[in-house]
Amino acid sequence: MPGNMLSKGEIFVIDTDAASREQLSTALQQNAYEVICFADGASLLSAARARMPACVLLELPPDRSGLDVLKRLRGENCMAPVLVTSANGSIAMAVDAIKSGAADFIEKPFRTHDIVGRIDAAIDEFAQPGASRQRWLTGCEPLTAREGDVLEHLAAGLTNKEIARRMHLSARTVEGYRASILKKAGARNVTDLLRRIFGQDSPTQA
């Protein structure tokens, strides 16, 4: 990180590709982040118990063992946004990651400057509870504030009943909001909605 810049916080990174780690570290340091790379989930979890990172970038291997790390981070009340990356991504994997508490799911390969932008956005969004995810549905009819809140919960993997409890609404009301969101987004169902959210503008290697 340049010496004349104030740190924006630590980014915890697990990535098995050495070149990818180096590129990410360089790009993040140039954007005033401190980067700490970990060889495995156990060491990352141990560090997260001692201090709170600004964000976690977690690679999901084919055996999906990274989901266990993600669940434990959430179970231990780590409040930092977790961005999951995968070279073998699928809609099912993205849904599992979101349900397990991921803030974003990013397919490899990716451009480093794109992922820095996503990290910035995730940190900003986590700093503003209840912020609308309208930015993920560019080009559709604007969502109302309440629809934005429902969308946020849907993207986190909550069911209608769970959303209803959190928002102090009836399940039928939540169903109405969800139907409106799907219509505005042009999505057939929630899985299609997640595909729109996490699949649009997918970055590719430069």
From TrEMBL:
Pfam families: GerE, Response_reg. Transmembrane segments: none annotated. Keywords: DNA-binding, Transcription, Transcription regulation. Residues 136-201 form the HTH luxR-type domain. InterPro entries: CheY-like_superfamily, Sig_transdc_resp-reg_C-effctor, Sig_transdc_resp-reg_receiver, Tscrpt_reg_LuxR_C, WH-like_DNA-bd_sf. This is Response regulator transcription factor. SMART domains: HTH_LUXR, REC. Residues 10-123 form the Response regulatory domain. The keyword Cell inner membrane does not apply. The keyword Transcription applies.
